[in-house]
Amino acid sequence: MAKTETIIIIPARGGSKRIKNKNLVPINGIPLIDYTIKHALDSSFQSQIYVSTDSEVLKRHLKKFEINIITRPKRISSDRSPSELALIDVLDFRKKMKLEDPTNIIFLQCTSPYRHKKDIDNAFYKFKKGNYDSLLSVVNSKKFIWQYEKKKFKPVNYDYKKRPREQDFTNFYEENGSIYITKTKKLRSNMNRLSEKIGFYEMNIFSSFQIDEPHDLKIISSILPKNKIVNLNKIKIIVSDFDGVFTDNNLYLNDQGIESVKLSRSDGMAIKMLKEKNLKFIVISSEKNKVVFQRCKKLRIECFYGVDNKLDFLEKYLKKNNIKFNEAMYIGNDINDFESMRECGISVTVKDGNEKIKKISDFVLSKNGGCGAIRELVELILGEYCE
């Protein structure tokens, strides 16, 4: 077997003290780790991607991607464990599989979700061209750094007596933690991602924002572009729950004992746009309330209500219509949708969805059920507004 020149490794621990389940926290509706996975898949090394994780929840989430998922041992999964141990562990795993060490490793941190599409390839090109032993990504810095040490406060990177103008403050760079590249032999011998002849790859200033503290989430969500969440060429059907998605999950009862629910008119226009794109949409509901049937009849979409086992029903429906699970998108909000959402290629939930459901969702909408969630989803899929 020919030796692999370069692989990508993405360490992704399950634990996080400052932000619970950080790698799965949605940013603009997309789990944090998905940004880095997508960047890796967009690179020239898409067939050699390894994610090292100790989290079973993350493993289940990552199954939708065509990547290699490696179990990271608990002994090297604490918040004090250096990432180099995870990199070496992946190499050792490959050796057990009778695979030679690659020549190079590209190490990506999923706490850095902002990268341009070609950043990984361009960084690798500079690494090869410069014949470096290792390389790190950086951003240009005009910060005046001071240090407090031994009860003295002193400047680190300039002389305050000859203070330069900011525009003259050049050739200073800040490590942004996004991309590292190293020769495998150097990593093994030095146990360090950086060693010997070190190069750098300059990135956009926005790439310097990493997710470490809760307030970082607000900053990065305002920076990351709000793109389409799915390629329509890969999806043949959208399957939706009714209560909690089309409705606000409440039941209203008047003084005559007549039940009613709250619906959003804006969802109707969204369904119309899907039909214009010939994208199939069906509703599967465990509710037996006829309002489900009446609403779907008005929207002219297939409706199946009073379904106890949604996964079993969906499996038979997809098989009958020659559709694979990975060609289906499922939008749900509660635990009776859990199994179906986990099986489908793409899973979506509403802002006020069950927390367990949010953890397995690929996308969390910004709207609650019954408040235009379907419309938001369709606008995100089609990349256009439903006017």
Write the SSE topology.
Layout: E1 6-11, E2 26-27, E3 30-31, H1 32-41, E4 49-53, H2 56-62, E5 68-71, H3 83-96, E6 104-108, H4 119-129, E7 134-140, E8 146-149, E9 152-155, E10 173-183, H5 184-190, E11 198-202, H6 214-223, E12 237-240, E13 252-253, E14 259-260, H7 266-276, E15 280-285, H8 290-299, E16 302-305, H9 310-320, E17 328-332, H10 338-343, E18 346-349, H11 355-360, E19 363-364, H12 373-382
Parallel strand pairs: 1-4, 1-6, 4-5, 7-11, 12-15, 12-17, 15-16, 17-18, 18-19
Antiparallel strand pairs: 2-3, 6-10, 7-10, 8-9, 13-14
What do you see in this structure?
The protein has 387 residues and is an alpha/beta fold. 29% of the residues lie in helices and 22% in strands. Strand 15, helix 8 and strand 16 (302-305) form a beta-alpha-beta unit. Helix 7 runs parallel beside helix 12 (373-382). The longest helix is centred in the first third of the chain and has 14 residues, at 83-96. It is elongated and about 80 Å long. The chain starts with 5 loop residues before the first strand and ends in a 5-residue tail after the last helix.
Write a brief caption for the model.
The protein is an alpha/beta fold. The chain has helices at 32-41, 56-62, 83-96, 119-129, 184-190, 214-223, 266-276, 290-299, 310-320, 338-343, 355-360, 373-382; strands spanning 6-11, 26-27, 30-31, 49-53, 68-71, 104-108, 134-140, 146-149, 152-155, 173-183, 198-202, 237-240, 252-253, 259-260, 280-285, 302-305, 328-332, 346-349, 363-364. The chain contains 12 helices and 19 strands.
